[in-house]
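Form 7-S
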Amino acid sequence: MIKLNEAQTKAMIPDGHILVLAGAGSGKTRVLTQRIAYLVNQLGVNPREILAITFTNKASAEMRSRLAEVTDCADKMWISTIHSMCAKILRFEAEHLGYTSSFSIYSDTDSEKLIKRIVTDMHLDDDNIAKNAMWHISKAKNAALSPERYGFEYGYERQIDTIVSIYKKYEEMLKRANSMDFDDLLFECAQTL
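Output:
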């Protein structure tokens, strides 16, 4: 077992839920890895019941690698980023949401291109409207607000009717393309759960 300090050891031993707040390089991944190893190796928790969420793909790979060093079943655990986890869940549930399981995931660049195309098709002259619409659409999705609801709650915003129209068209075009953006992964997964 890897040597941990007193606070790390306390966080490692399962005693209900914990919240670990610490800065970069302070050993959070080490603590989580040791906690998972303790659950599996000492308490007999089924590794298929382990879900470990990280922020980046690099951190996810690092956690998987560290777990492989201390358990023989890291490959049976679900270790991923939040977006990867949501995408996996949504692929199982895609047909209930009006998608196929092979839906595409739009990058920020793909989304930007689509919004610019919508703005052009709507014959809007404002150069900033696409950037403004992207910001508002992301804000709406992160607040789990439909275009209509967003327009209602943010009716005081400048150009809100135009933004809502762009948001509606954007959603229609994504759906027609059997695609979701990164915000959809979180929004749709939350709605599904």
